[in-house]
Amino acid sequence: MYTPMTDNLIAFGQCPSCKAIWPTRGSFLADPGVRLIGYSVNFTDLLAGVFLFRHRCEAIVTIHAGEFASLYDGPIFGTPQTGGPKCPGYCLRADELRSCPAHCECAFVREIIQLIANWPKRPEADSPALTRSGRSS
């Protein structure tokens, strides 16, 4: 079972390559140097699935879907439709970011993808992510 990050962590996320730090989920999502590029599903625990982001330094930043679950307030269906006649198979392709039309237990994650992909980005000059040393990235 996925366990969300705790409040006592110093930052929401950090780039594994350039070490840029995002102190909050909002700062991460609003960073114009961060772009959602995929989702790797975990069918056993959907919140443990991983969103894949490309950072401006070209590194891949991975963050569990559970860290974004509170953004969604719509319906969550209880039955998987994966592989069934109404399933378009989007969850099976990491680079597929479209919403899912099926009433499937996985569909809410596809809606979170839409929220992330359409999150307003701040202007490039406003409050960029900080490097580990505290410098702007």
What does this structure look like?
This protein has 137 residues and is an alpha+beta fold. The protein is 12% helix and 16% strand. It has helices at residues 25-30, 107-117; strands at residues 13-14, 21-22, 34-40, 50-55, 60-64. The protein starts with 12 loop residues before the first strand and ends in a 20-residue tail after the last helix. The protein contains two helices and five strands, in the order E-E-H-E-E-E-H. The model has no long low-confidence stretch (mean pLDDT 88). The strands form two sheets. The chain has a three-stranded antiparallel sheet. It has a two-stranded antiparallel ribbon with strand order 1-2. The chain has one domain.
Which class of secondary structure composition applies to the elements? alpha+beta
- Quote the distance from N terminus to C terminus: 34 Å
Give, in spatial order, the strands making up the sheet with the most strands: 3-4-5
User: Can you summarize the main beta sheet?
Assistant: 3 strands, antiparallel
Order of secondary-structure elements: EEHEEEH
- Helix content bin: 10-25%
The total strand number stands at 5
Are there runs of 5+ residues with pLDDT below 50, and where? none
Backbone CA Rg: 16 Å
